[in-house]
Amino acid sequence: MSAVLILGIVMTAIALPIAGKRVWFLFRLISGGQPAPDRIQGVTGRIGRAVKTELVEVFGQRKLLKWTVPGTAHFFVMWAFFILATVYVEAYAVLFSRNPEWSWFVFGNWALLGFLQDFIAVMCLLGLVVFWAIRLRNQPQQMGRKSRFFGSHLGPAYFTLFMIFNVIWTMLMYRGAQYTVAEYTLQEGEYIQTFPF
User: What DSSP string runs through 98-122?
Assistant: First the structure.
């Protein structure tokens, strides 16, 4: 068993209980709500409209996009979580299969997926820079009550930005490792399909 595989197993063994604790907390929080049968009846009577509203509001970020700059930044950061999940599933598969050429069984080395992964990573990084700049410009220590963050805990906000940044740079490191392996295995002209961005 290689050191990389052992490290991957150890990190997974540490991360799973932390994630499990959070999932349990959220389950208890959601379960603690009072029953609302009238709300359920209201939704089931208009299921198509309810689904459309959720898609537009959540995935389309309609309300947040009313604030052009921060809304656009949030749009890309949120979508990065969905799209980059495919990279981390792939990285786990490569780690445990010990096959550096592992690819998605449905998509294979689909250029569109690779492009979306790389594009959203770059846009997410730009979004993080925007959030960081907004927080620096509106510091409560300098602006007092005029700051939109007055009374907020900025430490956890900066920590969240830092953790999202960690997701992005590790993905880019993984992509660099893929590129290095591919340099020795890909045929001439295959680079644009595997690394489109």
Answer: --TT--BTTTBS-HHHHHHHHHHHH
